[in-house]
Amino acid sequence: MANRKIPPLDLMFFLLETAGSPKHVGAVQIFQKPAGAPATYMRDLVKSFKQAPVVEPFNCRPHFPRFGLPEWQVDEQLDIDYHVRHSALPAPGTDEQLFEVLQRLHCGMLNRDRPCWISQVIEGLEGDRFAIYSKIHHAYIDGMSGVKRMYGTLSPSPTRAQITPAWSYVAEEPDRTPVHAPAGDGFGKLGRALLAQVGAVGEIGSAVTRMGLEFLNLGPGGAQKLFHAPRTRMNDRVEYDTRAIATCSLPLDRARSIAGATGAKVNDIVLTVIDAALHDYLDAKGENTRVPLVALCPMSLREEGDATASTQATALHISMGEPGAGIVERLRQVVDSSRATKAEARAMSREALLDFAVLMAGALELADRTGLGRMISPSYNVLVSNVPGPPEDTLYLRGSRQLASYPISAFLPGGNLNVTVLSHGSRLDFGLVADKHALPDVAFVARAMERSFAALESATLGARRAPARKRKSAVKARPVGRTARTVKQPAATARKASPRKPRKKSEQQL
After folding, report:
1. Which of 102, 130, 186, 437 has the fewest CB atoms within 10 Å of its CB?
2. Known catalytic residue: 83?
3. Residue tagged active-site, from 24, 83, 137, 138
4. pLDDT tens-digit profile of 134-155?
């Protein structure tokens, strides 16, 4: 990565960034300290973090020369004390206090004069727990490579003392050389890349023409439609960098049972639950729409085993359920829309999908910055990402058991609500991030998601869900799930109940 040109899709996140809408992604992990941990446990842990080597991309900073293209440069004077920080909550160290701190930490742009990442160890959580909050600029990694690095720190063994933090993780470069390619076939590789791009330009041209005709009501268009979403408070322009954060967790095994009973994918269930919750929220505000909401869903284009640092994803617009639809009918509508949109995407090459992501982001930014976005329909209402994690239920960091791991992401132009789900073990952990001025009570949505999942489970599985109730203890294991209740929610929120949720694999972020 060092002294390499910044690829267009990664560079896009620097170009789209504003003070009010930083483009870093983050996560908070909650840990239970081991029994009998010494008084110096936290200090020793942070010391180990700081002594670990810093490898690419974490030792690189962006360089924007006066002439020439932006590139990555190694920071020869990297200050590890700046990047790895240690703090503590005041007593009693509640989850509410933790989330108040996280809402502040997630604000503000990362300093481009340094490698753009920070990891903050926060001790003092009640119950002998601690948290690790990390954020890194989206130009460095996407969700898939970020999760692989985050979980590279952990071990299924409670006795393992060795630590490999995210900034020390060395990913293997995938071998993309064709089996029969002659050694040193540099010119052939370049030629194939150029041909692929030429083909991608043709594909993009066809897609843009189709969408343009549909936008002007001159053609039937396709499954994926740009600038066709209803306008909601989730589309208010982001003016400040203040954030509201909420979390919830749902059971992956029960989500898979629903998927098996309905012929849906776990990701369809995720979208259905979010969709129903957003309509509940808009109903409570007296602002519900007359047409379906639209989710913008990143879809990973990363090859199997590839954990290299870079963004390798596109994004799909998926129309969700009708406002008044029942939960089962809503799922059916989401399934139909999702299948059609994915079928269109599969008909395009990887190069075309990557180019389309850059083009789409540019169009969203242009609409947002010129004011055009306030005169035409929004392109989407909520950004929904689904990132798969490891299969293990129980993981440790130097003997401390991980209790939860919630993603905390960023906005794209045109929207102010991001819902990211991290599936790992038998659970789905959701992190909801909203503009505090537009959705200060985003915890209402998190609680409504829990209720919507319970309704979907009851409607599709009925009595068959009874055995899963044994997992009640797993609900209590989500220490931060309840925290979301305290992040500025309306009185109506107090009525919300609590269930759980799902996951998927090869369509990693969709």
Report:
1. 186
2. no
3. 138
4. 999 999 986 567 777 888 789 9
